[in-house]
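Supplementary notes (optional reading)

For those who missed the lab, this is the record we used. Protein: Ankyrin repeat domain-containing protein. Length: 218 residues.
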Amino acid sequence: MPRDADCGVSGRLQAAMRLDWAAFIGLPRELWLHLIGEERRAWALLREGRGMNRPGINGRCAVHCAAALRDATLLQKLLDAGADPDPASIFPWTLPPLHVAVASAVSVPPLPRVVWLLLARGAAVGRCAGWRRETVLALAARRASMVLPEDSEFQEWQEVLAELALASGAGGIDAADRRGRTPLYSAAHKWVIAELLSRGAAVHSQDLRGVRAAHLPR
């Protein structure tokens, strides 16, 4: 939803606060309040027109906040004002915005638009991040595996997987993490596996222990 330039809490965030906490998949209240603070900071930086790419004490920039909230309106305004879609991390544990959007516990749509905005502005789809050192496609494969075809989020995750697989290209779809595991290895549901295979994922990929993705129980 659109928001005013008063740096208050957005309508999207207010609506989520009025819903049950399950919508945030167990998001701790402390982190919840932190997100509210980050959002206010992001809008304040946008209003000032400067410092949008300057990380806070947690290493996150304004665009990280928009990605975590999956707020396409805020993200669009930040990117139009010159925010970096893929800022360098000052801490090894700080995920890029694209990873943040996919990993976010906020279940308010539209995730596909947020992913598309970041990719369209040059976010690196092949960048490995997090303790697994995995690509955003591998992360999406794990997150999408928690969604069933009958769930309301199914179509949205289908779009996200297709978009990320297309952006990854022939080589990126089999990019391995630090344990040698590809996105197909990370997939834990049949529909995710089928989607990746239809995009050209190598069925015989194996990790550093020699375990093949095709031999994993699903």
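If you only remember one thing from this example: Residues 1-94 form one domain.
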